[in-house]
Every structure is written in structure tokens, then in C-alpha cells.
Records
---
Amino acid sequence: MSKLNDLSPYEQFLRDTFHADDAGLQRLQAEAEQEGLPAISIGPEQGKFLQVLVQLTGARKVLEIGTLGGYSGAWMARALPADGKLISLELEEKHAAFTRRQWAALGLNGKTEVRVGPALDSLPGLADEAPFDLIFIDADKNNYPAYLEWALRYSRSGTIILGDNVSMGGRLADPHQQQNEWIQGMRRFAERMAADERLVSTVVPYADGIAMGVVK
């Protein structure tokens, strides 16, 4: 299901040694492909990175904006403690239903929840769940700036905010792509992440780039 499979020999070595999917995640990806879910999920390198961040920070409450087939959420939920909670927002009911089945098969039901609908409609209803310890944004790129504002609203000092696909396949700085709505949204998001005085931010160059900020 991930499109991130064009690897150099060194990248393949790292994937095989550090980041390989286990049987449960392999099944999730294979069944996602069989059911026709878009092949746009993160790769195992990013999944392991998210898992390490959850574990490193001792996160108990995680918000994910953009569920797809539940692959990234599975990596994060596995690192949560028994009383931890991942809330994932997904536009499509088909994707949400697939994800619920996969998370149940992985034994993650007790720590996960998918909420269906446009994320900008779902986000106002999360006030009672906040603050979150980690927030991962991987949805429609034109709305990333709005998602960032909600993420900041639902954060505390030390919260990690991440946004996937900053590179936009290398198109972010392409002068011929600047009229694209998703490119414009991602540029505004990246600029706000870098300039917002509430954040200490950088970009981790995994695959298509992950912007990461820590709330001061």
C-alpha cells in the first residue's frame, strides 16, 4: 500500500535491518492493496520513527489527522501504554471500517478510535480529549495550515506536532507548481511551522519529508 518502495541498496539494508514490517503489518498492507485503498501510506521507516517518538516521549494521548488504512496508526498505537489512546480522523467510511478491522486483528481496539467525517468538522469536538501528547497530520495538504492551528490549540508544552509530505514529491519548491492548491497549502504550513514562536521545528528527511515541531 505504500508507494515508498524505490530504495537504494543502503535504504533497503536499513529497511530490512531496522524497519521491516512484521506479519501483522504485512497483512494490513496486503489487504489494503486487495481492497483498492490508495497506495499512499507512509513507509515502514516513518512508521518506526513515529513509534519511537511515542515511546520516547511517554505519550498517552495521540491524535492522527488522516487514517487511510490504519498503518501509521498501528505503529503509534503499539507504543502507547495500556491506558493510552489514539484518536484518528478519517474522511471515508470505507477506510475507517477497514482500519477498525485491522486494528482489531492487531489487538489494538482498546487503545484506538476512528472518527469519520471531514477533519475540520471533527476537530472542534475534541476539546475534552485535549491536550494531546503527539499529533500526526497526514491528510489533504491544502488544509494543513488549518490543521496546524487546531494542533496548536490542542497541545501542551512538550507536545510533538508532525506533518507528512513536506517535499510534495520534490514539487514544493518547483516554480512551475506554485499554482497547485496542495503545494500552496503545504508551503503555508511549512512557513508557519518554521516561524511560529510557540514551536521549535525542523524537517526530518524521511521519504517525502516530515515536518516536526515541539511546543515550547
---
Amino acid sequence: MKNVRGKVILGSIIHSTNRGKVEFLKNALLMINADGKVSDLLESSSPNYSKILNQSKSSNSLYEILDHQYILPGFTDLHIHAPQWPQLGNALDVPLEVWLQKYTFPLEAKYQDENFARIVYSDLVSSLLSAGTTTAVYYGTIHQKANQILADICLNMGQRAIIGKVVMDNPEECPGYYRDSSTNEALDGTSEFVNYVRNNPKNSDNRVDVAITPRFIPSCTDEALYELGKLAQRHSTYVQTHCSESDWEHNYVINRCGKSDTEALMDYGLLNRSTILAHANFISENDMELIKDKGAGIAHCPLSNFFFSDAVFPLRRALEKGLRVGLGTDIAGGPSMSILDIGRSAIISSNALESGVNTIVSRDLRGCVDSRIDFNDAFHLATKGGAEVLNIPTGSFEKDNFFDAILIDTEIDNARIAIQSNADSDEDLIQKIIMLATRSNILKTWVDGLIV
């Protein structure tokens, strides 16, 4: 079975509609309409269950999955540096400010070569889809044509995506070989890219959209930041940028602007309901209140934070304050392209924050109490949490949501997940899939009910 539009899926369905609880529905009927949206989800105890099951069998519209297979929502990755794909797993040995200048900017400068961009981006998008990432938020480069190529590839391959032309016009922080030649060029290029994506004839369903993308405050002049805020409002686009990622970046903004990243972004007109703040490790209580008040979302990147931030984002505190948070791989700051890995890293980092790591300090003083999350929260962040940051109706199988989904098989050779039917509870099974599943366990990926 390739596409499931107009089909009824019979089998085990796993999703999360609210933080803190993952639902496991056995022998459920998941109904997909002709537009690729969920029309209903029936448990086996539902009054209409037998009627719908028999109708779908007689009309040959039933898609039955095996007992060791499970339908999960597709994953949302809120923070990907698309041009850094060739760098994944490399260059993790220096601080962020050195990493950018020594490794990353030279690599990103290569995307003036359109053929190079096409080869890399094709591999990136297909790899992410096979890993279950149905919605991806990408930082591009300063190169207009390369960004257009990335948008075209997402459209051709069927991935839901938000893409930004990176703005880097500050000569004090950006190398001469890799920066916008002027502020006007940066702004014009951003506007042109918005028009290219939104007027693309292949994008009639708006599956690909644009984010105004100041890389971060250090890379941009004040003029560019103010004007980008106006552009975002004028075009009603997303905004994405880095926020208080590391000591260096956080303190740079305080020294330059006399205020925190969050406060500065608000003053630039870049903090709103469509803003995605990457990292946010060093945000204060006041910053959290501003982010909540403006409705902005946070891309939590726990794996890359270990390498480049020397900090752990206070995830549970942010969630309990009501902030909208999803997950990001931060390719290539984190050496994994799997949102499942990132969910596991979120659990580990929250445990480390609660328990502390300095053995010289006594246990009762070592950590930050009430910081840890569990697999339920990690799953929600990977699916519906990320989708909610983007205001996109996906990430769960609620009525009228897009059917963006993956098929997990626990009995794949060399990637078998040992499920003991006589010993494992439903919760055990869910936890094993979340903690143990790999790219090999993902047999199919759908976006809008279409196989991708």
C-alpha cells in the first residue's frame, strides 16, 4: 500500500494529543479522507466500528497492518541547518564561535555551486523523510539559487517544510567570503525568496513556506534586524533565529544591545506567534514570560547543546510555564538526524539537569529539582508539540489533522525491538519503541496521506 488517501487503516495506533500522555489504540480504525486528512479515529469499542470495518472491507479500502507494526505521527524537526548536512558527525571539537569560523562558514560558502547544493539537499531531504521527519524547518544559506533548489526538492519529494534565506550582513562577525554584500541585498534576497516559494506553481497547497531568518543577532546589523521584523509582518511569515544558545552568543547580545536576546528580538519586531527560537538555554524568567506573552515557540536541541552550549535548557520549567516547545536536531551541531534520538537526548539532559553532574558537590545541592521529563513528554515534543509551535494541524491523529505518519515495524532484521507479549504492558511497548526504534524500523513515511 503506497498512498492511503480514501483508505481506512486497521491496526495499532500510537499518538499523543496532550502533553504527558501517549495513547495506544489496538485494532483501531484510522480513516483518511481523499484530501489526506484524518476524518475519524475509532477504537474497537466504538459503536460504528463494525459497520465501518465491514464497509471498508467490501469497498476494498481497508489497509491492515501487521501485529508487530504500529502507526505513529510523523516527526517535526524545528531546527535544521540544511547546508551543514555534509558536516554531520564532524567538527565537534571546538566552541561555537570557533566552529562557525573554522568549519561551518567555509562549508556553507560552497553552496554558490548549484550542483553541489542539488546533490547535498536531495540526499538530506530523502534521508530525513526515511527517518520519519515529515515536517522540517530549514536554515538555508545566503545563496538565492541554492535556497530555491532546497524548496524545489522539498516540493518534489513531498516533505512539509519551512525554509529561510539566512541573513548575515554584519562585517564585524561574518567573513568576507561568506556574507551578504549589503543590508539591501540581504533584504531584497529575503523578499525574493518569499515570492519564489509562495508563487511556485508546485506549491498550491502551501506545503512549503518561508521563515524570515536572521542567523542570529551577532551576524546581523541593527538595520537588517529592524527591516526583517517589518518584512515578517508585511509578508505574514515565520521567523526563525538562534536565541541565547551559548555563553558567547548570549553575552555578545547583552554587551551589544544592553539586553537579552529575547528582549532585543522583541524590540526588533521579530518575536511573535510565528517565531521559532532555537536553543534558548540561557533565557531568564523574564525572557520566558516575554516568549509566552508573544506566543513564540522554542526549538529544543538537547544533543547539540551538549556540544556547543555547555548548558541544559530548563525544558520542564518552560513546559510548566505554558511555553510551546518542540525538538530540533540542529544538524550539524548535534551528530544525529533522527528526532527519535533527539527525544532520547531530551530525556537524558533533563535527568542530568535534575541530578547534577559535579560529584564534588553533595547530591542535595548538585542538581535542579523537578527538571526531568519522561518518554511521554519526549514523544509529544517530537510530534504534536513541534507541530503546535508551527501552528500546523498535524502531529496527532485528531479529526481534520493532516495524515503525516510513519509505519514502525519492531521485527525488522538487525533492528528488532524485543517485545514480550506476556510480560510487556502497553506502556512498556510504547517506551521501547520511543527508546529503541531506529531509522531501519521505519518502513513507510506519509505526508498528507501520500507515500514519500
---
Amino acid sequence: MSSDLEKRIARMEDREAIRELKHSYCYLADAGIDGDEAKFDELIGKFADDAWVDFGAFGKFEGKAGLTTFFKDVVGGNFSFGAHMVCNPIIRVDGKSAKGKWFVLAPGVAKTQDGGRATWTQATYDEEYIKVGGEWKWKSITVTYGFFAAHDEGWGKTRMLSLE
């Protein structure tokens, strides 16, 4: 097999591994939101030790301790249901690092004093990945929101809902 063909196959395998990583994010985050807190721990294990996330109005969090605060306290503390649906990935691999961009649409339920409020989120994930010990992990995630809106009002009326 030619060296060029081996490199092309390796890049394809890397892109597929990154897709699987992102799909695991959706499953693990949603299972954690649904009450299985151990899934948040599994998700945090898929980040590099010095990773960070920036979720706009929800905050920026750095390192494993920051990620734990974000997923368990911010996400788990504010939502009781989530169903991440990601699509349109653009993944660029460069050796042991990569960048990705994804669209997400996610119905959810925000915790409120009277039980919950159905929400819709649309955003773009801009991500950086690093290959550690042969495994792809997140280096960073930056989220840019198109809308975070109450289901009953829609994003045409209130584009960015406050949880306060």
C-alpha cells in the first residue's frame, strides 16, 4: 500500500473517531441531564486534562474541575431533559490535532420552580481535538447560539431565554 493511501485512510479513520466522540457527547450529556450523573463523569473523561469549554451566557470552564462544575452543576442543575441532535460536521485533521464545526438542535426541559419549561436550542459547536495515547479527546468547545428559546413562545419572540 502506498504511503499516500495509508495517510488518506488514517485521516478518514481519525474523522470517523471524532464523529464517534461527538456522538458520545450527545448520548452522555443527555443521559447525565436525565439523571444518570455517572454519565457526566464518563463524558468529562473524554476531555484533555487542560481542556476548556465556553458556553456563552452559561459560562467558560477550564480543566477537569471546571468541566465537572459545568456539566454537573450548570447543565445538570438547570435541565431535566435534553436531546442533542448534531449535524453538518466539518472536520479537519492535522496529525494529532483536529478542528471541527457542528450544528446542534436540542429540545430540552429547563428546571423551574413549577416543574419545568420546554426549550429549544440551536447553536454551533466549534471544537478542537487532540490525540492522546491513540484516543481523540476534546481540547476545547466554543458554543455560539442561534437561539435558546421557550418552546411555547418560540425563537421568533425571545431568541435568548434567561434561566433566572
